[in-house]
């Protein structure tokens, strides 16, 4: 149809695509390259802040490494981020490095569609921007989309303390494999940040792809706490050690003991150690990836299942 052909030239691709993927995702591999060295960081890098855009990893990869994302099946380069070392973070037993994203490009669309789509997306972002609302610059959102070439799993984070309970979705999360830490990047304005710093315990429910709609509704709890666990639209079950209500239909429930937290720009970076890990069911987990990544996979007949 001529409409399918013309559409990418008049309308931008969606920034994000929600997909059903078995965790841990293995469709895209992330590699850090610096000074003639390289290391697989598919399970060892995470977003620590959106403004500025900051990546955390257990490795010290020098001052100006490259972070490459490749299709695992074909080895094709999908995108690259240019990083600049910012700081290191020392916890009880491990240390991490924070890298500011200095630049980046993706290769999911051919030229000139790549530049044209970015222009259309950036124009829409600027048009919808509210002066009172938190929003990264369009160039930083383009770089964030590159970081999402590795599909990011969605979890529900549960918090329970005397006088405060909450459950909200997160995808700026991930293992930092070499350090044994697990990170959560939460906007400083999230209502549960002070409580999490105090009680230092959370439960993470890995969400089946089929629960997308219910999970998106819980985004409101980033702003105000949950009044009553019984008000949840799905059954809960207590996490194993802490007894924090988690999602009964989870694929997996992990408990974290938070060993470190600090503000990094717009976000508070929480670092935790796993206290328990219950694998409850097989199935695909809700993930987010970049819209241009899904467009690339569709063009090559290997698209991810969209939900
Ligand atoms: C699936 C999903 C994942 C999210 N992940 C995070 C996260 O990792 N960190 C965070 O601070 N906020 C996260 N949010 C919250 C949003 O960034 C945003 O704060 C929330 O949806 C409120 O939207 P608003 O501030 O645009 O009104 C997530 C929201 C959704 C729906």
From TrEMBL:
Gene Ontology molecular function: FMN binding; oxidoreductase activity, acting on the CH-NH group of donors, NAD or NADP as acceptor
Source domain of life: Bacteria
Gene3D superfamilies found in the cross-reference section: Electron Transport, Fmn-binding Protein, Chain A
SUPFAM superfamilies cross-referenced by the UniProt entry: FMN-binding split barrel (SSF50475)
Pfam families: Flavin_Reduct
InterPro entries: Flavin_Rdtase-like_dom, Split_barrel_FMN-bd
Coiled-coil ranges from the UniProt annotation: none
Domain Flavin reductase like: 150-276
Listed name of the protein: Flavin reductase like domain-containing protein
């Amino acid at each position: 149809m001529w409409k399918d052909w013309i559409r990418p030239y008049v309308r931008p691709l969606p920034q994000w695509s929600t997909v059903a993927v078995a965790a841990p995702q293995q469709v895209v591999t992330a590699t850090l390259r610096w000074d003639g060295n390289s290391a697989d960081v598919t399970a060892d890098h995470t977003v620590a802040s959106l403004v500025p855009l900051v990546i955390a990893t257990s490795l010290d990869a020098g001052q100006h490494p490259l972070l490459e994302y490749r299709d695992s099946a074909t080895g094709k380069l999908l995108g690259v981020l240019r990083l600049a070392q910012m700081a290191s973070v020392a916890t009880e037993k491990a240390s991490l490095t924070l890298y500011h994203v200095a630049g980046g490009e993706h290769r999911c669309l051919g030229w000139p569609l790549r530049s044209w789509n970015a222009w259309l997306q950036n124009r829409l972002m600027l048009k919808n921007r509210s002066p009172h609302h938190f929003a990264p610059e369009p160039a930083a959102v383009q770089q964030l989309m590159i970081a999402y070439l590795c599909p990011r799993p969605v979890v529900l984070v549960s918090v329970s303390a005397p006088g405060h309970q909450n459950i909200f979705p997160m995808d700026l999360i991930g293992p930092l494999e070499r350090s044994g830490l697990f990170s959560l990047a939460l906007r400083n304005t999230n209502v549960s940040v002070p409580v999490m710093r105090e009680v230092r315990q959370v439960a993470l429910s890995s969400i089946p792809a089929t629960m997308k709609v219910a999970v998106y509704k819980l985004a409101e709890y980033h702003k105000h706490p949950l009044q009553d666990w019984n008000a949840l639209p799905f059954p809960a079950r207590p996490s194993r050690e802490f007894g924090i209500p988690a999602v009964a239909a989870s694929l997996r429930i992990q408990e974290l003991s938070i060993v470190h937290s600090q503000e990094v720009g717009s976000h508070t970076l929480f670092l935790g150690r796993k206290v328990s890990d219950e694998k409850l069911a097989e199935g695909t987990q809700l993930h987010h990836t970049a819209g241009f990544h899904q467009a690339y996979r569709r063009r090559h007949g290997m698209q991810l299942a969209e939900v």
